[in-house]
Amino acid sequence: MKELTPRELNRALLARQLLLERSPKSLTQAVEAVGGLQTQNATGGYLGLWTRLQKFEMADLTKALEERRVVQGTTMRITIHLVTATDYPFVAAGTRPSRRAAWLRYHQGRTSEADVKKAAAAAKKALARGPLSRKELTAAIESTTVWNGVNALYDVLRVPPSGTWERRRADIYAMADEWLGPRKATEEEGLALLLERYLGGFGPAQLVDAANWAGVPPKKLRPVADKLTLRRFQDEDGKELLDLPRAPLPPAETPAPPRFLPVWDAILLAHARRARVLSEEYRSLVFSTKTPQSVNTFLVDGAVAGKWSVKRTKRKAELTVDPFEKLSAQAKKELQAEGEKLVRFHEPDAEFSAVRLAG
Description:
Helix content is 42%, strand content 17%. The protein is built from 14 helices and 13 strands. The protein has a six-stranded antiparallel β-sheet with strand order 1-3-2-5-6-4, sandwiched between helices.
């Protein structure tokens, strides 16, 4: 098997995540290509698409959510993800049994599956009349813990106007069957789509990486992988890497432009460590108990080089770029240009915008 270097894996990941160059893909094509976007923070979907697409306006994602072309729900790793309406039934089916087992195991002794099933029936009946707020649902069920179980174990969506840039708290819910219409998929079909989406967006990768990303046991993915036509490589440690046929593998020397990423961008999480986008030296600066929501980061030459934030006053919007390391003059110039685009996107109605390079 051909051995791929960490830098080759880095460039493959960036290409598939549409971060080597902005893509002409449509919004839904992009969401599927990158394997969905993690949106515990509603702004993540907007910023994640802006940094990946040639043409993207703030209103585009809000409209796609309102038109039900994309949805937000608790799926992979029992976290909130943005996926297309076409993919959702398969993603939900593939993760549902593992979500249920993990949640019930964690809450053992505090609530039972019977309690959650009873609450789910009540929630489904209430939501049949239309979307309801978290406050309305927890009042009906009379238990926040049990409602959290309904949200984790069953196919519940967070729907607009909540979970958007304009109204960021995602606290209005609908049952998926009510919002999208009944759509059936088996666990096996769902697992097959999950593996294909993972390899398409993050490969080449070990099977255990795909399982960690999806939040399912690796043993569930092995039979699925055996049925797919896959190509195989190995990493520098000799471990097998799976990949889709004809998926991009750019040369190691391919230039990687600076890119601004939102909180919780999936390329920084543990399942993508092999590509070395986030140095272990800097991991605690991005994910820690002091920053439970993580931080906005930026890439230089395909790796995290610092964090960023936007501060808005009445008339002015200022982007602060805070490097973790000394940057070259060329990197500073490129970040300045990209940062000006970001602050205009982030605060389009500001009368004056600026980029400040800290340090």
